[in-house]
Write a structure and sequence with these properties.
Elements lengths: L9 H14 L4 E5 L2 H9 L2 H4 L4 E5 L4 H4 L2 H11 L4 E5 L13 H6 L3 E4 L3 H10 L4 E8 L4 H14 L4 E8 L1 H10 L7 E5 H7 L5 H7 L3 E4 L3 H16 L5 E3 L11 H10 E8 L3 E10 L8 H4 L15 H5 L31 H7 L10
Parallel strand pairs: 1-2, 1-7, 3-4, 3-5, 5-6, 7-8, 8-9
Antiparallel strand pairs: 6-11, 10-11
Amino acid sequence: MKFVDEYRDRAKAEACARAIAAITTRPWSIMEVCGGQTHSIVRYGIDELLPEKITLLHGPGCPVCVTPLELIDKALLVAARPEVIFCSFGDMIRVPGSSADLFRVKSQGGDVRIVYSPLDAVKLAQANPDKQVVFFGIGFETTAPANAMTVVMAKRLGLTNFSLLVSHVLVPPAIRTIMDSPAHRVQGFLAAGHVCTVMGTSQYGPIVERYRVPIVVTGFEPLDVLEGIRRVLRQLEEGRAELENAYPRAVAAAGNPAAQDVLNDVFTVCDRAWRGIGTIPQSGWKLSERYVEFDAEQRFDVADIVTQESDLCRSGEVLQGLIKPNQCDAFGKQCTPRMPLGAPMVSNEGACAAYYQFRRTQVEGDK
């Protein structure tokens, strides 16, 4: 077994891996639906600890990666306007649009700023009443409550120069889409613990029942991920399909009701395009009628942009767990972190970036 020395609980992790090996009798494929878990798996060599029979598939768990190309292009158009201060988290700055990225817009004179909290953008709007301040609100259910609070605060403060460019997506519809695909290879899921801290676990029960697929909610530490894998495998080997919470120190069944109240007030569920995958019905949020005046797409009239993905980029197949990043012909050649074709190569949670950073450049079987 191989495992990097830096992990403080190496002995416990290796013991958990041995427990996994002891119960594994046949091949199984398990998908993690969280970019943080993907990076933990690749960085710490978790897949190398597991029996050869177990295949880990990397799902669409990186919100930056699934932000659709047309929305990136909308962001670029808005950010280039002279009256706009465009605010984003740092992981969106290098995500490629059709012909540029936000870093390029900034280098050409656009006022693009990295913020560390969405409420920083509200403060900028207060401090710059002569400018239009736009915050790029992306993410799964985890980041949505804080982003929702920006428009609540803007409304309370009477700010007319603040708006939100929204690209929020929801995990359960993505899992259903994967399972509905005739090409899927998934027999069990690791669900993202941070999503469930907000939304709870109830949305996953119907998926387990409909598809007869085990789902285990788990965290991001190597030991968390291994424990999640162990629980999924135990169910598979015993012929069971149940929802389990392996992350009780952070996740309650009901989630965070206060956060859910804010989400239900600010957003309404909508169809949403996923980069490389296509439109998934009822898989995203948009601003509700109560807050529609803060919708940047409407304010800057960029709602109808149509784009075309690169023919070389196979990120959609990576995000659906159909191929590994290093099975893409462009990986490490036409597509690198300095010159990415797709978001998974540049995002902090992207599977392609993880494979490149941790030297998984060669295809070695199907682990």
